[in-house]
Design goal:
InterPro entries: 6-PGluconate_DH-like_C_sf, 6PGD_dom2, KPA_reductase, KPR-Related, KPR_N, NAD(P)-bd_dom_sf. About 40% of the residues lie in helices and about 20% in strands. With about 325 residues, the chain is of the alpha/beta class. Strands 4-3-9-8-7-6-1-2-5 form a 9-stranded mixed sheet. α6 packs antiparallel against α8 and α6 packs across α12.
């Protein structure tokens, strides 16, 4: 098995290090000081499960890597459409792409045989078909990340919690390529269940992202602060309820309690969401996959989602008026 990690940041480098420890041929594609450190010292993982160092090949040039069996995408979803030049050297006839992204993926309605929206393109995450042109639907393996990591220093990954990476085919099959990837991830010390319908995991995680990410950016509040403020907690609950209604209209029925989901988020404590961190760093906000796509699916399924629409309007305006890099 040969795997390239395109965008070997905090999550990507952690996964690559784990797979390399399992004996997989891994190539990390990154840039800057982080790349230089990984080349010189390898990837140093600091984890409550045990520290370790792995030394996979690291480069900034995918042409050095060539065709692989899998590409693990560690890029933000909004970067997919512009990643064609980086992806092209890695793509063989059977190369699969694991899209470890937050929110709704570009392939969401692909493979949903019998659903009225089967094959429907979601403009928010595949504008003009630009992502599909780079990442054809048949290459996609869905992936939902239940893992928290951060780059503590160049080449040093702090693993905070979680090791689960749920994967699955858009067409709900249990494919040999998913089973093989799962076995490799497990051999590296990670949890990697192959789900018959990974969309349920997508919506369960998205329930938190769709509410806490934009609200934290708009208010500069941490997870626990949002949960402990009664009115903002009610707002989160309303956004989650609308999201569940949209999910069911889109053909998925996540089985989770809203109160349980909020309480789980509260236990994270004084954590800044990735969207708030991006705002403070002057980076582009990842709103397309996290909330814009949900609002678009609400429109496609004729589901009223007034709270989601109002919060989306506010965070979209913020993203347009904030400095981005």
């Amino acid at each position: 098995m040969k795997i390239a990690v395109l965008g070997a940041g905090a999550i990507g480098a952690y996964v690559g290090a784990a797979l390399h420890r399992a004996g997989v041929e891994v190539h990390l594609i990154a840039r800057g000081a982080h790349l230089a450190a990984m080349r010189e010292h390898g990837v140093r993982v600091l984890s409550p499960r045990g520290d370790f160092t792995a030394r996979p090949h690291a480069t900034s040039d995918p042409a050095e890597v060539g065709e692989v069996d899998y590409v693990f995408l560690g890029l933000k979803a909004y970067s997919y459409a512009s990643s064609g030049d980086l992806l092209a050297p890695l793509m063989g006839q059977g190369t699969a792409v694991i899209a470890a992204q937050n929110g709704i993926p570009w392939w969401y309605f692909h493979g949903m045989t019998g659903h009225p929206l089967e094959g429907q393109r979601i403009e928010a995450v595949d504008p003009g078909g630009s992502v599909t042109a780079v990442l054809p639907m048949e290459r996609a393996i869905g992936c939902v990340v239940y893992c928290s990591t951060e780059i503590e220093a160049p080449g040093v990954i702090r693993h905070l919690e979680g090791t689960r990476f749920s994967i699955g085919e858009p067409d709900r099959s249990i494919s040999p390529r998913c089973v093989a990837l799962s076995e490799a991830m497990i051999a590296g010390g990670l949890k990697c269940p192959v789900e018959k319908d990974v969309r349920e995991d997508i919506w369960i995680k998205l329930m938190g992202n769709v509410a806490f990410n934009p609200l934290s950016a708009l208010t500069r509040a941490t997870m626990v602060e949002i949960c402990d403020h009664s009115d903002s907690r009610d707002l989160v609950a309303q956004m989650m309820a609308e999201t569940l209604t949209v999910a069911r209209a889109a053909g998925c029925d996540p089985q989770i309690s809203i109160d349980k989901r909020i309480d789980g988020a509260r236990r994270v404590g004084h954590h800044k969401t990735s969207m708030l961190q991006d705002l403070e760093a002057g980076k582009r906000l990842e709103i397309d996959a996290i909330i814009a796509a949900v609002v678009e699916i609400a429109e496609l399924t004729r589901v009223p989602a007034p709270t989601l629409r109002h919060v989306y309007a506010a965070i979209d305006l913020l993203s347009r008026t904030s400095l981005v890099s």
